[in-house]
């Protein structure tokens, strides 16, 4: 079996893994010091973007010419518009999802006490306007990523099935991002407490990833609870590395999970490009470090108001993981793609928020 059980480091498998990890480590050091800039055209003009620039795809900037979705029109509550949330682990996604179903009055969901999920069906058709954990549930798999939801058309398939027939809808994709180092540490601590997300399917190219495609870092029968940081960061198949970039990119472009076995600069660049394009095509994305602005951005994009402040609700638990300088540098380095995506995202976020503020001032 192609699994790497880090708990039992012995044998040929352990040595092979060690060699692999060493090579990966050496490669990442080289990568770090050469510091190949993955700078791409950001698609934003000097004057700043116009409303359409933001919501439409600029074809000079990316490798792919097909926009995921154009947003010529605002979200229409009574039409076939659906908000889809791409929930990346440890990014405040749960807070946002709770707010969508519980503290939002413009298009209220019907929630019952002691029930996790709410009914966000439209009055007339009872068809949902929200695809998320607390409305539809994890119908496309636990923490399904962009590749599963969009590239493999899971959202469309599920909603067609619920409606009983094929139907044209406008999908408004949304997500949340977070400072990659903080997110990584938060994921580590969550795994240490016992989470594994082992039931995620990682569908790509029409099929779930096999153990061969995607070896686990731990014995699935035992889990990874209590893992040390050293162990956590030395498994090359750890999906926590650059999770945000991977979960937002079209993995069909890079042979699905091949990059975990054979890291390559070319594939990183394609993945990066794809994640940025998909992010640009999102109707909304929040930034965990900027909760108030995220709330403003969401409310004004969808014309929905929350009755509470996300920034008050979404405070994360105290961080008591003490890291050395070199551990921090290592973590930053193995999340290099996420750092590039995050810096890009914050810039784009600032532009979108200031544009919305301008529009709000103009309306008076
Ligand atoms: C929203 O969709 C409904 C039904 O398709 C339509 O009647 C209405 O005019 C639309 N509203 C706007 C603002 O486009
Ligand atoms: C649906 O019906 C409820 C109660 O009848 C009403 O409060 C709500 O505003 C309606 N929602 C929409 C989107 O029409
Ligand atoms: C509306 O759909 C939900 C599931 O999304 C279901 O539980 C509920 O019974 C439906 N209501 C009606 C009136 O069909
Ligand atoms: C993803 O990439 C594949 C392979 O190039 C392409 O056929 C497909 O259209 C892409 N899908 C999306 C949603 O970008
Ligand atoms: C918690 O995290 C913040 C930001 O990442 C950092 O500045 C602070 O020193 C950390 N606190 C502890 C106790 O590790």
- Quickly give the structural class: mainly alpha
Give the C-level CATH assignment.
Alpha Beta
Helix content: 40-55%
**CATH hierarchy: architecture:** 3-Layer(aba) Sandwich
Describe the biggest sheet? 4 strands, parallel
For the termini, the CA-CA separation is 65 Å
Instruction: Please give the domain count.
Output: 1
Name every ligand kind in the structure. 2-acetamido-2-deoxy-beta-D-glucopyranose
Order of helices and strands: HHEHEHHEHHHHHEHHHH
Rounded average pLDDT: 84
Order of adjacent strands in the largest pleated sheet: 2-1-3-4
Task: Provide a quick synopsis of the model.
The chain is built from 14 helices and 4 strands. It has 364 residues and is mainly alpha-helical.
């Amino acid at each position: 079996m192609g699994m790497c059980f880090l708990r039992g480091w012995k044998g040929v498998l352990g040595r092979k893994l060690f060699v692999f990890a060493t090579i990966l480590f050496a490669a990442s050091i080289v990568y770090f010091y050469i510091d190949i800039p993955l700078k791409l055209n950001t698609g934003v003009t000097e004057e700043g973007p116009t409303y359409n620039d933001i919501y439409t795809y600029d074809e000079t900037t990316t490798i792919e010419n097909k926009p995921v979705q154009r947003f010529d029109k605002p979200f229409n509550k009574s039409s076939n518009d659906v908000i889809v949330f791409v929930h990346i682990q440890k990014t405040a996604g749960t807070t946002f999802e709770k707010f969508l179903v519980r503290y939002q009055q413009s298009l209220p969901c019907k929630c019952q006490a002691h029930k996790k999920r709410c009914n966000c069906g439209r009055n007339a058709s009872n068809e949902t306007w929200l695809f998320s954990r607390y409305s539809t549930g994890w119908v496309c798999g636990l923490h399904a990523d962009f590749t599963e939801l969009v590239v493999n058309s899971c959202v469309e398939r599920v909603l067609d099935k619920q409606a009983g027939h094929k139907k044209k809808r406008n999908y408004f994709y949304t997500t949340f991002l977070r400072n990659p180092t903080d997110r990584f540490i938060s994921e580590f601590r969550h795994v240490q407490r016992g989470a594994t997300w082992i039931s995620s399917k990682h569908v790509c190219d029409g099929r779930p990833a096999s153990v061969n495609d995607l070896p686990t870092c731990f014995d699935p029968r035992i889990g990874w609870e209590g893992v040390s940081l050293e162990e956590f960061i030395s498994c090359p198949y750890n999906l926590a590395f650059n999770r945000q970039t991977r979960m937002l990119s079209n993995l069909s472009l890079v042979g699905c999970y091949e990059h975990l076995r054979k890291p390559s600069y070319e594939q990183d660049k394609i993945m990066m490009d794809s994640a940025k394009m998909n992010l640009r095509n999102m109707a909304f994305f929040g930034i965990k470090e900027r909760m108030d602005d995220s709330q403003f951005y969401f409310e004004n994009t969808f014309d929905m108001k929350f009755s509470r402040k996300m920034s008050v609700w979404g405070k994360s638990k105290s961080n008591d993981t003490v890291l050395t300088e070199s551990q921090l540098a290592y973590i930053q380095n193995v999340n290099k793609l996420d750092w590039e995506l995050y810096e890009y995202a914050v810039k784009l976020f600032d532009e979108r928020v200031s544009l919305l503020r301008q529009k709000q001032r103009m309306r008076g």
